[in-house]
# Entry
Amino acid sequence: MMDHNVFKRNELLAKKVIKGLDTRNMTGYYAADQEEALKLALSMIPEGSTVTMGGGQSVIEIGLVSALKNGNYNFIDRNEAEDRRAAMLQAYDADVFLASCNAVSEDGELVNIDGNGNRVSAIAYGPKKVIFIVGMNKVCSDLDTAIKRARNVAAPINNQRIGGNNPCVKAGSCFNCKSPDTICCEFLITRYSRHTGRINVILVNDTLGF
# Structure
């Protein structure tokens, strides 16, 4: 069970992030635990919706992928598709795109790094709604710190997870490499949303993802 003081700190910090998101025309929510995060996410996805995602361990961890696959939704799973590229391209016209963040600043700026570019491009444009599932472990004091977290924490762990052979896998931190299989090809900073209601961020009082 999480210590009461940690819980309270996360709750207060989440309010600050949500306020920052609001100034950027993005909507933030706070979930006290994974179960609440799952219920909140499902309440934002109408039955019958076409839903897909890029890589997003946090989305899987709260049980959202399983719930969508077992519910009345058209969930497009690129990992189960015969044509992986075609499945990923369907994301651009999906009703809902699910993702996590590599990092988020206290002022509400979202930072994501991508290898293929399908995830960050769908976040930037295409799907009618984007829902982020973000553990409070991803919150950083400012944008510079968020970028450093994305490069030196999230990227090396994700690289290890997929069996990459880049310098960060062996050293545990970014070398700004230009290796052929680098997963740090595109960097996306989402600092404002022109479209009201499109970007939604569920901050979860838990450690999720990398």
In short: Residues 4-23 form the longest helix (20 residues).
